[in-house]
Write a sequence for this structure.
């Protein structure tokens, strides 16, 4: 609107006899790019009126020259309204798609219980595919008979096939984690599931994953080709847990070793993550440092810890990370006497 | 990222030298080269020389597994050799070093 007044003012002051009214078309065009259709129509009407009015001061009103210029302004104005409508319709569609993707993701990755089997939990997932919100990273927690089993995994590849497999693995884990008494057997079940998945000839399908069983002070880990879980002691010490080297990824068979039982104390925190975190690089190609992680995991609550990790990774990369990142943090809570 | 392959036949052994980076865009070339090597009936062993492979991601590792399967179907042997530290570390961390042929699973330099 201000622009329209400006063009008119310049036109009158400079005495250019309505030559400048062509510039009035810029106002509706600009509105079409950023405003809603209704507002664009308003601007268009104003521009058209201004174009007519511009003929008044010098008596050009009605001359063929003036009429032609006014016709141009009106035509462009109508086009602008049309463009604004098409644009907002497209934006609305995109918004709906993003919402569908978000709901799909939520169906695969259910919301974590804040607390289960004497353990506080928090999880966070962000897809690298801008706006998609869906990827091949997965996590799940299953509590049963005072024991908590966790999984964090990463499907090789991306796109719809990866999302589908992530959903299948998560579902199978929910089932298997309750039925199987041995964590190794849970891993074998998932191994079979992924192994049956058809894959393109030129690249094998596999899923890297780490399975964790928390039972009072004991931590058992089966690692299937996945980055090792990180334990932060209440004292601030950091340690990677689980067998090294890990077993093969899920889907490729081979031995599944249970690994030694580690101990954790009340207040200790265990972070399960995907390689998107440790492989996040800054401008100079440096990986996300462990030292930064230690500080993040010292926040008062597990939820705040993950927010801190997320913020730190963002700051390190200088924007959104290039890979999906899934984080699952568990903290051992003081035992509550049975009521 | 780019990748070139260079295939050298020596009797029953085919040695394919990879130079560059193996990722989702370039890994197909490696699979193609391995399949091309297998078209000759006399080939009993395929060796991938990774001495000048600077980078590998999960797609690349999936492709190496697929190559191994393709060679294995015909009863042939599949080996990797001259792994650069980064590639070796990636395969070690993914638990694939033992699977992919002819190399000890020892942590060696992989822990760094």
């Amino acid at each position: 609107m201000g622009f329209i007044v400006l063009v008119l003012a310049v036109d009158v002051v400079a005495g250019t006899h309505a030559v400048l009214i062509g510039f009035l078309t810029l106002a509706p065009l600009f509105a079409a790019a950023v405003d809603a259709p209704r507002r664009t129509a308003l601007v268009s009407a104003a521009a058209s009126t201004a174009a007519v009015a511009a003929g008044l001061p010098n008596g050009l009103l009605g001359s063929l020259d003036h009429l032609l210029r006014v016709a141009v302004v009106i035509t462009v104005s109508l086009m602008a309204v049309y463009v604004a409508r098409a644009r907002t319709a497209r934006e609305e569609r995109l918004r709906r798609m993003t919402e569908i993707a978000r709901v799909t993701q939520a169906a695969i990755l259910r919301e974590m219980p804040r607390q289960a089997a004497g353990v506080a939990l928090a999880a966070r997932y962000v897809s690298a595919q801008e706006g998609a919100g869906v990827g091949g990273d997965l996590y799940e927690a299953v509590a049963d008979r005072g024991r908590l089993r966790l999984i964090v995994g990463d499907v090789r590849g991306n796109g719809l096939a990866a999302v589908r497999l992530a959903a299948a693995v998560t579902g199978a884990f929910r089932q298997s984690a309750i039925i199987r008494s041995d964590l190794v057997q849970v891993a074998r079940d998932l191994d079979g599931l992924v192994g049956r998945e058809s894959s393109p000839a030129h690249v094998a399908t596999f899923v890297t994953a780490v399975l964790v069983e928390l039972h009072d002070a004991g931590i058992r880990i089966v690692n299937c080709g996945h980055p090792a879980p990180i334990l932060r002691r209440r004292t601030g010490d950091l340690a990677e847990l689980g067998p090294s080297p890990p077993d093969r990824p899920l889907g490729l068979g081979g031995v599944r070793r249970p690994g030694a039982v580690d101990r954790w104390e009340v207040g200790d925190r265990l972070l399960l993550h995907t390689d998107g975190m440790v492989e996040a690089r800054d401008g100079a190609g440096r990986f996300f440092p462990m030292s930064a992680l230690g500080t993040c995991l010292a926040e008062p609550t597990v939820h705040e810890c993950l927010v801190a990790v997320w913020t730190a990774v963002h700051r390190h990369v200088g924007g959104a990370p290039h890979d999906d990142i899934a984080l699952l943090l568990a903290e051992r809570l003081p035992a509550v006497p049975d009521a | 990222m780019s990748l070139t392959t260079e295939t050298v036949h020596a009797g029953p052994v085919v040695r394919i030298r990879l130079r560059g980076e193996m990722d989702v865009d370039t890994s197909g070339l490696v699979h193609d080269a391995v399949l091309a090597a297998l078209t000759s009936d006399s080939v009993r062993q395929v060796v991938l020389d990774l001495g000048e492979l600077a980078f590998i991601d999960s797609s690349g590792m999936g492709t190496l597994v697929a190559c191994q399967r393709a060679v294995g179907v015909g009863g042939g042997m599949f080996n990797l050799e001259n792994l650069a530290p980064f590639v070796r570390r990636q395969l070690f961390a993914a638990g694939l070093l033992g699977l992919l042929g002819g190399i000890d699973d020892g942590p060696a330099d992989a822990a760094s």
About this structure: Helices of chain B lie at 27-38, 58-73, 85-93. Chain B has one domain: 3-111. Confidence is low (pLDDT under 50) at residues 104-112 of chain B. The radius of gyration of chain B is 13 Å.
